[in-house]
From TrEMBL:
Superkingdom field: Bacteria
Span list, region Disordered: 1-32, 318-340
CDD domains registered for this protein in UniProt: RNaseD_exo (cd06142)
Entries under InterPro entries matching the protein: 3'-5'_exonuclease_dom (IPR002562), Exo_C (IPR041605), HRDC-like_sf (IPR010997), HRDC_dom (IPR002121), HRDC_dom_sf (IPR044876), RNase_D-like (IPR051086), RNaseH-like_sf (IPR012337), RNaseH_sf (IPR036397)
HRDC domain span: 240-320
UniProt biased composition (Polar residues): 1-17
Protein name per Swiss-Prot or TrEMBL: Ribonuclease D
One GO term of the biological process aspect: nucleobase-containing compound metabolic process
Any one GO MF annotation of this record: nucleotide binding
A Pfam family assignment: HRDC
Length: 419
């Protein structure tokens, strides 16, 4: 029996890890109380020394001000380690936490949804060499809901306060209820890590998870996104190149203003307003003010700024206007496959079905078993030989982890040969 077959048989007949139990116990305050916020170098040095002298994994979390401030910087960092307790650090008052990062660099960091917090932690000098991601662990273990509060409740039997996740963490001073909420976010994170490690070991998936965590820790910062303005919500309604030029000009003007004022771009000008202006192509500020999102609350100076961006787009030469579809290096959208390459479309249908079926057997999301992007790339440009080894080599070259290759190369090879 192959390793893949053993794993499938060991997981497919197991009960779901989300068994119902007694009502969760509310966790209302940290066991040592809410610690003071560290906001000066002397206090930070003491925390660094204490965390360095602690033992075991370090629970790490960060609070941002998404929806309020420009960018994704951290406005509070929470840490907890055995022997050191919980620390709350203000990275506005202490913007360089590289000494702290070095002090715990050799420890395993425990984060929930690590890829969300690592960029802002990296910006203040904190980068792990090893980590355990409790959200990803929950996905691999087959939990249907993997938010921190739900996971703590399901796995450990405690309920966390949920009321302050979307507040403006750039506010100063931070209210005591917010600080209590922040401290509780790391209170049980190591306990959750330990329980999930045991669950993954029981399911035969622990090595897979460790491979995923190592890949996250080793990943370089992502490159800047090309044409970020194309992510404007509702841009799919804009059909013409001149109108897309308006979207781009307005997006860039908004971004510059948001950066200068340190505000979330959506607070400066809504995406819906950008799309409405692009569709209407108003000739002057009076016409612009009549559009949704540019009403009476927009002052004359702001209207002139937005109208100037629209006018710039109106005056652009045709060759400088954006294309209606972004240029990509990968395969075309799947909806175009049947017309452009019917054989590739058949391969994709077979491969998707095979990967989805295996993911269901393993009780994990299909995108964690193998991302749709990797499936599409292998199906669009399959290896010359469609055997498992050649398919595995192609997946490896595209960045798939070894456990993913072990679980999918054989079934993809079969789909490529039959599709």
């Amino acid at each position: 029996m192959s390793d893949a077959q053993q794993i499938t048989e060991s997981t497919s007949d197991q009960p779901s890890p989300e068994a119902t139990g007694p009502a969760p116990v509310p966790l209302l305050t940290p066991r040592e109380g809410v610690p003071p916020v560290i906001a000066d170098e002397a206090a930070l040095a003491a925390v660094v020394e204490g965390l360095a002298a602690g033992s075991g994994p370090v629970a790490v979390d960060a609070e941002r001000a998404s929806g309020y401030r420009y960018g994704q910087r951290a406005y509070l960092v929470q840490l907890r380690r055995a022997g050191a307790g919980t620390s709350l650090i203000d990275p506005v008052a202490c913007p360089d936490l590289s000494a702290l990062g070095e002090a715990i660099a050799d420890a395993e960091w425990v984060l929930h949804a690590a890829t969300q917090d690592l960029p802002c932690l990296r910006d203040i000098g904190m980068r792990p060499t090893r980590l355990f991601d409790t959200e990803l662990a929950g996905r691999l273990a087959g939990f249907a809901r993997v938010g921190l509060g739900v996971m703590v409740e399901t796995v450990l039997g405690y309920s966390l306060e949920k009321g302050h996740s979307a507040v403006d963490w750039s506010s100063r001073p931070l209210p005591e209820p917010w600080l209590r909420y922040a401290a509780l976010d790391v209170e049980l994170l190591v306990d959750l890590r330990d329980a999930l490690e045991e669950e993954l070991r029981h399911q035969g998936k622990l090595e897979w998870a460790l491979e995923e965590f190592a890949a996250i820790a080793a990943a370089p910062p992502p490159p800047p996104r090309k044409d970020p303005w194309r992510r404007t919500s509702g841009v799919h309604k804009v059909r013409k190149r001149r109108q897309l030029g308006v979207v781009r000009e307005l997006w860039e003007a908004r971004d510059e203003t948001a950066r200068r004022r340190d505000l979330s771009p959506g607070k400066v000008l809504a995406d819906a307003a950008i799309v409405a202006a692009a569709q209407a192509l108003p000739r002057d500020t009076r016409a612009l003010a009549a559009l949704p999102g540019f009403g009476h609350r927009t002052n004359r100076r702001q209207l002139a700024q937005w109208q100037a961006a629209i006018d710039r787009a109106r005056e652009l030469p045709e060759e400088e206007l954006p294309q209606t579809a972004p240029q990509t290096q990968g395969p075309p959208p799947p909806r175009a496959w049947a017309e452009r390459d019917p054989a590739a479309a058949a391969r994709l249908t077979a491969a998707r079905a095979a990967v989805t079926a295996r993911a269901e057997e393993l009780r994990m999301p299909q995108e964690n078993l193998l991302t749709p992007e990797l499936v599409r790339r292998v199906c669009w440009e399959p290896p010359a030989e469609a055997g498992p080894e050649a398919v595995g080599a192609a997946l490896r070259a595209l960045g798939a982890r070894e456990w993913q290759i072990g679980q999918t190369a054989e079934l993809l090879a079969k789909a490529l040969s039959e599709g």
